[in-house]
């Protein structure tokens, strides 16, 4: 008995396949294939971004986040083309420990800024997403109203690579967003780790959200982060928490006076607010506007951006040299050998590093 016959009445019988009709639009297949193998060219991305098309912006950010070697050149070219269109914008960093109310704040504040006629983009740097175990920021549904608003664009953190790599990609995403007409860019990060420094180095104004009654250690926020803040907001100043928030505000204000003044002549202050009920959002905006006015007048705003650009230039060079060095299989092989020798005390770290560098310079940099 053939196989086919024995399965005739069985539920496991596999029917012969039916020839599928052609797609209604024969070009559709072609397009899908093209998209997979070879995403749009830079011109198409650029046109899409310029027209403010959010889907195109999203796809363009995916391109710059790509680690495929063939995407590197078009991604670089796209950023270069977008650069002249970016700049007349405001970049706001927002940080604070998980649960402090960052997304509630950005949603509420962002919607108010849209009402004032702005277009708002929200980018995130989530250090926890760099490890494979999910992310602090990304796991929940965040900023639902802002997320669906036509004048807003929200992009979660890139999750591959190192913090430095993600920070660089976020900067580039910021440039694309600005070219797409978003004039206020929030860069949000979780206040636990090194990502605050990375964010502070890419924004104009850095806002730290805190809670009242966090204890002496300032709720895990390191002193260094407070020093970077242009404004501290004690959030959840509502209901029974209002009094405690006021007390905390005074404490933080006193603490701030001990810090050296910020470059640019700006004196950071402390406000209380309720992101949930939208209290004091206007005062926060007033502070930001005063900062912009002062620093644009005295030149610090522009100076800061130029320094950030120079910092990026240096960082890119470091990264490229690092990638070239560690991208050589022979180097990796020798690295392993030297590592064993160092751990076994067979060679000093100085001698080992010199030998490997001599080999590297001799082999690759002729
Ligand atoms: P994030 O982790 O910093 O982004 O914090 P979320 O914005 O997700 O807020 C954490 C929780 O605190 C949520 O349940 C919010 O509803 C709540 N929350 C945020 N802001 C306020 C506020 O101003 N007042 C009160 N009472 N609750 C708030």
Concise overview:
This protein has 366 residues and is an alpha/beta fold. The chain has helices spanning 3-6, 26-37, 42-50, 54-65, 69-82, 102-115, 144-148, 163-179, 195-200, 223-228, 242-257, 281-297, 300-326, 329-343, 349-364; strands spanning 90-96, 120-125, 152-155, 184-190, 205-210, 231-234, 269-272. The longest helix is centred in the C-terminal third of the chain and has 27 residues, at 300-326.
Descriptive account of the structure:
With 366 residues, the protein is an alpha/beta fold. It folds into 2 domains: 86-298, Rossmann fold; 314-364, no CATH class. It has 15 helices and 7 strands. It has helices spanning 3-6, 26-37, 42-50, 54-65, 69-82, 102-115, 144-148, 163-179, 195-200, 223-228, 242-257, 281-297, 300-326, 329-343, 349-364, and strands spanning 90-96, 120-125, 152-155, 184-190, 205-210, 231-234, 269-272. It has a 7-stranded parallel sheet, sandwiched between helices. Strand 6, helix 11 (242-257) and strand 7 form a beta-alpha-beta unit. The chain is globular and about 65 Å long. The N and C termini lie far apart (72 Å). Mean pLDDT is 84; it is low at 1-8 and 18-37.
